[in-house]
Amino acid sequence: MKKHTSLQCLGAAIALVLGAQQVLAADAGKFYIGADVGSTEFSGDGPAKSVVFVPGQEFNDSDSSYGIHAGFQFTDWFAVELGYTDFGSATDRFKISPDIAFIVSPNTVQTIEAKGASLAGVFSYGLGADFTVFGVLGVTAMDYEKTLSGGFSPVTGSLLERDSLSDQGLLYGVGAKYALSQSFNLRADLRRNDVGDFSLDTVSVGLEYSF
Fold first, then answer.
1. How large is the average pLDDT for residues 53-73?
2. Cα torsion for 196, 166, 51, 156, to the nearest 10°?
3. pLDDT, tens digit, for every residue of 4-14?
4. Of 152, 153, 189, which Cα lies nearest the Cα of 171?
5. Residues 191, 172: contact at Cβ < 8 Å?
6. Mean pLDDT over all residues of the chain?
7. Euclidean distance between CA atoms 177 and 186, whole angstroms
8. 100-123 mean pLDDT
9. Cα gap 94→47, rounded to integer Å
10. Are 177 and 131 in contact (CB under 8 A)?
11. Secondary structure element (H or E) that encloses residue 4, with its range
12. What is the dihedral of CA 168, 145, 35, 72, to 10 degrees?
């Protein structure tokens, strides 16, 4: 009886795996598009942090984010995906170096707004007829808008400095999809963009449509 039960369990497991692979195979050769909303945590030195700050201070802030993506499923386990994400902004107050504190206030606010375009490979594995997990590895081209504000003195007046810059970094993460129908998937992602000494960690949920 135990042997018979074990064989039944093994047969069910094999059928589940084969069923999942058939579902994935059915999606091979298809384009898909999607949109998501989430939250991004900014951490690290940040891009082009002002030289007037005391060294060693880091950004530590979060904001809501949203993104869109489009991809092509080449095989049952591999896709290539293009994405665009507005990560929101990070704002922190930093201490000014004592060498120049006599001309500006001892604390100045810097804000970074981040947007990025990504190209990544998506590696999928089916865990059931409707459920798929995946890993993501790729690159991101990031655009930043930097605003430095605060400070007042008879010499300098109010301090307001704006600048734009760009950088490239590594994108990696994990996620899962749940099939709502043959065309629509519910998708959840956890991704990190490492750009120099700056990291953006994003958790998001969204919908995906394949055609």
1. 87
2. -160
3. 444 454 454 44
4. 189
5. yes
6. 80
7. 6
8. 79
9. 14
10. yes
11. helix 2-27
12. -30
For residues 57 and 95, what is the distance between their CA atoms, to the nearest angstrom? 8
| Separation in Å, CA 63 to CA 20, 77, 88, 192 | 36, 33, 5, 15
pLDDT at 126 over 70: yes
Write out the E strands in the chain: 31-44, 59-73, 78-95, 107-126, 131-150, 159-179, 184-195, 198-210
Q: Tell me how far apart the alpha carbons of residues 107 and 93 are, in angstroms, rounded to a whole number.
A: 6
Distance CA 200, CA 206 (A): 19
Inform me whether the pLDDT recorded for 130 exceeds 60.
yes
Q: In whole angstroms, how far apart are CA 4 and each of 9, 15, 197?
A: 9, 16, 58
Domains, the chain, ranges and CATH?
A: 2-210 (2.40.160.20)
Contact present, 184 and 208 (Cβ < 8 Å): yes
Q: For 142-160, how does the pLDDT look when each residue is reduced to its tens digit (9 = 90+)?
A: 998 888 776 555 455 556 6
